[in-house]
């Protein structure tokens, strides 16, 4: 038997979800990335992330200094895990950025787009 431990209700539809210790980050159709506290079951911070829906959210596993979001606005963004402020915008795709990932050693960020391109970026 499986038990549900926590229920967090949101007004917007979530597109992606990533866990960061006792927090989760969600990307949604309202163009935001929200940081949720699982213990308190509340939204801690709303990042006005993009000009279109957030298609993916990834957390840097090695060091945990940033998260990356991708969007239908043709970009991806790197966000500070401490201040939730933007560190860098990864622009250069001619179509929706559908997914993003971070290399295990954090040396590269990869984005893939509807423009049929795959790009590797340095996070700094």
Automatic annotation (TrEMBL):
GO terms for molecular function: U4 snRNA binding; U6 snRNA binding. One of its GO terms (cellular component) is U4/U6 x U5 tri-snRNP complex. Gene3D superfamilies: YVTN repeat-like/Quinoprotein amine dehydrogenase (2.130.10.10). WD repeats lie at residues 24-46, 47-89, 90-124. InterPro entries: WD40/YVTN_repeat-like_dom_sf (IPR015943), WD40_PAC1 (IPR020472), WD40_repeat_dom_sf (IPR036322), WD40_rpt (IPR001680). GO terms for biological process: mRNA splicing, via spliceosome. The keyword Repeat applies. It holds the Pfam family WD40. PROSITE patterns: WD_REPEATS_2, WD_REPEATS_REGION. Keywords: Repeat, WD repeat. The keyword Repeat applies. PANTHER family: PRE-MRNA PROCESSING FACTOR 4 (PTHR19846:SF0), WD40 REPEAT PROTEIN (PTHR19846). This is Uncharacterized protein. It comes from Timema genevievae (Walking stick).
